[in-house]
Amino acid sequence: MKNKNTLRSEPNKDGHFGPYGGRYVAETLMPLILSVEQAWKEAKADQAFWEEFESLAKDYIGRPSPLYFANATSMHLDGAKVYFKRDELNHTGAHKINHCIGQVLLARRMGKTRIIAETGAGQHGVATATVCALFDLPCTIFMGKTDIERQKPNVFRMKLLGAEVRSVESGSGTLKDAMNEAMRDWVANVHDTYYLIGTVAGPHPFPEMVRTFQSVIGTELRDQMMEKEGRLPDTLIAAIGGGSNAMGLFHPFLDDADVNLIGVEAGGHGTDTDQHAASLNGGTPGILHGMKSYFLQNEDGQIQEAHSISAGLDYPGIGPEHAWLFDQKRVEYVSVTDEEALEGFQLCTKLEGIIPALEPAHAFAHVMKIAPQLPKDHIIVMNMCGRGDKDIFTVAEKLGVDL
Amino acid sequence: MSRIEKIFETLNRPALITFITAGDPDRDQSLAVLKSLPGAGADIIELGMPFTDPAADGPAIQHASERALAAGANMAQTLEMVREFRKNNDETPLVLMGYANPLFVYGFDNFAKDAADAGVDGLIIVDLPPEEDADLRAAAQSQNIDLIRLITPTTDEARLEKLLEGASGFLYYVSITGVTGTAQADIGAIRPHIEHIKTRTPLPVAIGFGVKTPQDAKNMAKIADGVVVGSAIVQNMAKGLAQDTLVETIETQVKALSKALND
User: Fold this and answer.
1) CB contact, 8 Å: A38 with chain B?
2) CB distance from A72 to chain B under 8 Å?
3) Given an 8 Å threshold on Cβ–Cβ distance, is A28 in contact with B152?
4) A141-169 per-position pLDDT tens digit
5) Does ipTM top 0.90?
6) pTM score, two decimals?
7) Which residues in chain A (252-311) have CB-CB distances under 8 A to chain B?
8) Cβ-contact B238, B63 below 8 angstroms
9) What is the model's pLDDT at position A149?
10) A250 and A237 Cβ atoms separated by less than 8 Å
């Protein structure tokens, strides 16, 4: 029986989170989407599948990721107690590896022999190329031309791992265009190819599946927090592009009404300009990339280019479950500008000796705003979802440093 | 009887269905080409609604959308072009083809009303499988507009049943697993499938995606009730021709396709 008092039982059997989600794909893909759903349903109920996932999570990814009390940050901000969930310490340096391991196991189970993926910052591309190297599967990564330029280290990493990186020149050459091109490839190669989608977006069952693999973050956190503080945290904060790290952090806490959940969108040059990536705060409901959700678009339903200093947040849409949680007001969605994120990036690095990726630097910037206003016994946990080595060139350029 | 029903009933040969994108390369040239199509031999017209993210289309039709949008195309202009076309043509069925988002944002009910009012006969929405098309189908049906379903080489028996339930107008058979205009359809491979579909439904079956030349059209016509040519025509829109030359070029191309189906 469906429990009506929970926010954790979405989506329904058709993949809808309230009015959002669904399966808006070409008919050619529908049989494959349905078979992914069937295989996922079976895998989810198969103990052996989870044993393999957990074994790789522990010995290959390095889970559980630590829960770290950021003492210097807490002292500096002189307010709430700030913790970091250290998913940047995962193998490959970000949370993306969690759902890549899960999905590659599913692809193998389905007998698929080729993997494709889209990538923005390159973190999901690197994680996908990594698991494909591990399982000896050929892999093609679609990446926008603009992103290839600004994420050169990750492009080289993917190539070293044996992936083919295909440059996408249509549109603005960023994540949304890479996703279009991956869809086109998938339609043409349905017989042998698995599309390893990199966030809680796309057609059902991907949002729910990626969330399930990423929920390891929030599930670990519950135990770690009980151990360290003997109670649940007061506030959870995570950056949001498509929304995978935030969904993984939030989902195990959705029914804990006393835990505030805050998603931080990329405000770019400001949500009052046309240069941002805040799909919830600056977008409207629409249909793209297999799902109904919020998108940046004009009044004629044409999708607009997103802008963020962070390539990983530079996407004009957001996962459908976030759209639903936004409407439900269960999660508070705020935004942080490029400039604020840059400040967060530098402060976190200096205070903690942790170079955050520009994505969690957005979350850190929001911590900087709210922690000083909160009492000393208020516990904030921020998801440090990626490390910043990949971003040093972007940051150097913004700071006017010639490397 | 709808225009679509009427054309399939009166033609004693397969229908030629031609695709162009509304507003490509701009509104005036696109309208001039649109008006010339029936005279050149197009039996049904598919008019593409431009979209920024045409994930089911190959480069030719992607670029057509880009040109149209760059020239200021929007949904109001597409419907206005249909109204202009209908001033001199009340027979040729016109089907709008595109992606769900611009219709969703317009509002399905309002869109269906305005489309019917402009003279639209059918809709093909490539990213709206039966699982998600109930709202638009209801809106379209209330205005006597056919929501045309797509069947593909990956459609199995169970799926076919689902696709035929509530289908109207005609069926659009996607002849390749891929995006528009990229591969050659293999007639030997699809023939048994189409023959099977025809035993399951009285609706006409048109074949599209991967049909380029008059010879392709002639081959496909042997097994179908209609043949769709899109990317091959749209490619001529990309050449930057003056309006008269452009209209003449497309007319010549459509005449050759029509002749192949009439021979």
Assistant:
1) no
2) no
3) yes
4) 999 998 898 788 889 999 999 999 999 99
5) yes
6) 0.96
7) 284-290, 292, 295, 297, 299-303
8) yes
9) 85
10) no
